[in-house]
Amino acid sequence: MIKKFLKLFSNNVFLFTVISIFLGLFIGAIILLAAGFNPLQAYGVMLQGIFGKPKYLSYVIIRSTPLILTGLSIAFAFRTGLFNIGAEGQYIIGSTVAVVVGYFIHLPAILHIPLVIICALIASGFWGGITGFFKARFGVNEVISTIMLNWVALYLQNFLIYTPGFQKPGGEVSYAIQPTASITFLDKWKRSEEGIAWLLDHPFWRDLFKTPINWGFLIAIAVAVLVWFILKHTTLGYRLRAVGFNLYAAEYGGINVKKNMVISMTIAGALSGLAGALQVMGVSHQISLLAAMEGYGFDGIAVSLIGNSTPIGCVFSGLLFGGLKYGGPKMQPAMGAPSEIINIVIGIIVFFIAIPQVIRLILEFGKRKKAEKV
């Protein structure tokens, strides 16, 4: 009976993910209760901070966009049997190149926006491809090389910020990108007299347009669908998944394993770089000096795990992650509850999601022992 129960939950990934989320929230509630706070009130404040106003929901979507893309990056590499810890560095490279191309080049928006995105994809794809090349050519573990490249990307960005003609006077930030490189939705119109007058008569849209709402989320959804299609319905996707399942069997079947490792990490790098580019083009419009990494790439690891390393799963887990990250901190000013409880909840969710793998190993070990006795 116990074995059947364990097998059910280890095989039903969606069910176990939902249960893991509830367990994370439940244990978070216990911690809040032990600290002297009402968990129902705390979670109520969090939900109010997510759904209470149109601008709150908009900020959740904006916060979720880079998380979806970095989650996709890690999920894509994982499908090929690679662990991309370098999403953070690739994100930094994408955002840096987006500012460089967005500021120094002057073109009409119809040409400027695609150019910024393409350049960011090429640069971050190359950055990810370095790891794939080292792995394929020299057998260098991708975890080690990506961690090292993360720091190289961080300090390279900081170096460029201090470059004359790129640093904005009076601050440790770059110049902002040209308006023609921005993907902020109706940015000029909402600042015009006509736009202001219209928004005054429409409270819902007025509140929504207080946020830097942009095209990034729609682009992220389109990319998730594209990644799903590539993995499921193309020859390239078949080769990449075959390498991920068993690289020796794939090589025996005539698949160039080393080439596909490089391709996988190049695409993964491009996805993380796209996250950085869209963040610059739609939200920040510039880059600033970083004392530490922003964390979008590392958070993408959790997004990928919660989404079971699937493109569509990453979209929903990215939204969940964005909601928790945006709504959770509002517990502190509202009732004094520590906002760090959200990080605990996320950690517990990821921990429980990893349990099915442990259960499978236990069941397989039990089968082997039973077979040995026979």
Explain what this protein looks like in three dimensions.
This protein is mostly helical and 374 residues long. It has a domain at 66-322. 77% of the residues lie in helices and 0% in strands. The protein has 18 helices and no strands. Helix 11 (216-233) packs antiparallel against helix 16. The radius of gyration is 23 Å and the shape is globular.
Low-pLDDT ranges: none
Binned, the helix content reads over 70%
Overall number of strands? 0
Instruction: Give a quick account of the main beta sheet: strands, pairing sense, barrel closure.
Output: none
Question: What do the pLDDT scores average to?
Answer: 87
Please report the number of helical segments.
18
Strand content: under 5%
Outline the secondary-structure elements.
Blueprint: H1 2-11, H2 13-34, H3 39-51, H4 54-79, H5 87-104, H6 109-138, H7 142-161, H8 187-191, H9 193-200, H10 203-208, H11 216-233, H12 235-245, H13 247-252, H14 257-284, H15 296-306, H16 311-327, H17 331-335, H18 341-373
Helix pairs in contact: 1-18, 2-3, 2-18, 3-16, 4-11, 4-14, 4-15, 4-16, 5-6, 5-7, 5-14, 5-15, 6-7, 6-14, 11-12, 11-16, 15-16
Structure at a glance:
By secondary structure, the chain is an all-alpha fold. The chain has helices at 2-11, 13-34, 39-51, 54-79, 87-104, 109-138, 142-161, 187-191, 193-200, 203-208, 216-233, 235-245, 247-252, 257-284, 296-306, 311-327, 331-335, 341-373. Helix 4 packs parallel to helix 11, helix 5 (87-104) packs antiparallel against helix 6 and helix 5 (87-104) packs across helix 15 (296-306).
